[in-house]
Amino acid sequence: MAALGESARIDALTGLTNYRGWRELAESLWREAQDGHGEIAAIACDIDHFKAYNDTYGHPAGDECLRRVATALREILGSAARVLARSGGEEFMALFLPAPRRRAQELALAARAAVAALAIPHSGSAPGHVTLSLGFSVMLADPDARLDVLLRAADLALYRAKRSGRDQVAELSVSALQKLRNEE
Q1: Which of 26, 29, 92, 101 has the most CB atoms within 10 Å of its CB?
Q2: Which GO terms describe its cellular component (predicted)?
Q3: Could you confirm whether 24 is annotated as catalytic?
Q4: Collapsing DSSP states into helix, strand and coil, what is residue 1?
Q5: d(Cα 85, Cα 21) in Å, to the nearest integer?
């Protein structure tokens, strides 16, 4: 029965944790971070122009692309990430604890470079190959902090990377996110 529960949390295509498992593990890691008042980092990743990739090369090629990107992320982020998941179609998330800002940035940059190095052909992408946009955020998990704020900051950073031309890494601090919310 335990194996069945475990398989319900694994993405069959990539072998990474799926969205359901991601949420459970993220909540658990968040509680651990709060207990130790440590810095926790979130990295959000998205394969650039993936719909165009699927439309051009077909879904079997899209599945293979997802597997290869997941393998590259596992190789770069897997040993450092406490949670690494396929959180949606072409989206991936990772959580790190402890996670100083500099280390989170280094990991995000390395993940972007690793996917570029795969050189998976993509005629719908400016460089001619599959690329990855990433956003990250780091925060101190004190008792008043909330996991959803950290994840929202990483997600908004990802969208900044996409709006800035894709195939790059962007950061949004939690304090910058709170400032944005105050301006709304």
Answers
A1: 92
A2: plasma membrane
A3: no
A4: coil
A5: 8
From CA 12, how far away is CA 158, in angstroms rounded? 25
Environment class of 170 (CB within 10 Å of its CB; exposed 0-12, middle 13-18, buried 19+): buried
- DSSP per-residue letters across 114-164: HHHHH--B-TTSTTSB--EEEEEEEEE--TT--HHHHHHHHHHHHHHHHHT
Domain 12-183 has CATH 3.40.50.300: no
Burial category of 7 from C-beta neighbours within 10 Å (exposed 0-12, middle 13-18, buried 19 and up): exposed
DSSP line for 74-95:
HHHHTTT-SEEEE-SSSEEEEE
Whole-model pTM: value is 0.92
Burial label for 148, CB within 10 Å (0-12, 13-18, 19+), is exposed
Q: What is the DSSP letter of 184?
A: -
Using DSSP's 3-state secondary structure scheme, residue 107 falls into helix
Marked catalytic residue, from 24, 64, 90, 183: 90
Query: What are the pLDDT digits (tens) for 154-171?
Result: 999 999 999 999 999 999
